[in-house]
Specification:
globular, 2 domains, eight-stranded antiparallel barrel, about 25% helix, 3 helices, alpha+beta
Length: about 180
Amino acid sequence: MKKLSGLIFVLTLVACADSEQDKSNSIKAEDVSSLEQAAIDAGVIPDVKNISLSGAFERQSDLGEDRFCAVGNDERGYQVGLLAVFGPDSKCEGLGSAERNGETVTITLESEQKCRFEASFDGVALNLPGNLPASCESYCTPRAGFGGVSFYLVGEGDAVARSTRGREIESLCPGG
C-alpha cells in the first residue's frame, strides 16, 4: 500500500509540474512586453525609445580600447566614428553615418569603401554583427575586423561624442 500511495504522490507532482509548464509556455507576447515595461518602470533596464544614440561608447580589452561615437539625433540621423583595436599595430577605423529605428542601428561607413550593416542598440551597448560585408575590410589592417565588436555607453550627448579620439583619425566625431 505504501508503494501505491508513493506512486500516486509522484504522479500528482508530475501532473502539477506539467500543468505549470503548460501555463508558462502559453505566455503571450503582450505579457512579455508588460514584463519588460515593468522592468523599465522599475529602472532595471533602460527604455530604448527614450535614449539617444548620441554619445561616446567604449570597450576595454587586453588588446586596447575600442571606441564608437555618434553625434546627432534620431530625426536627422547621426555622424559616427568607429575604432576597433587588436594590438599596437592592428586596428579598424572609419567614419560614416547612422540611422536608428528602435533597437536597430543602420551604420554606413564612407571614408573608404562603402560599408553598410545593421547593429543592435539596447540603450547601454551597441553590438555589431559578426558577419559584415567584404567592403568593411577596407577600414582594417590585416587580421583585424569590425565583426562582432561591442561598445558600451560611457557618456551621453554630442559634446562627449566630439571628444572621442581615434588612432589615425584625430577626432572620430568632429561635427554634428
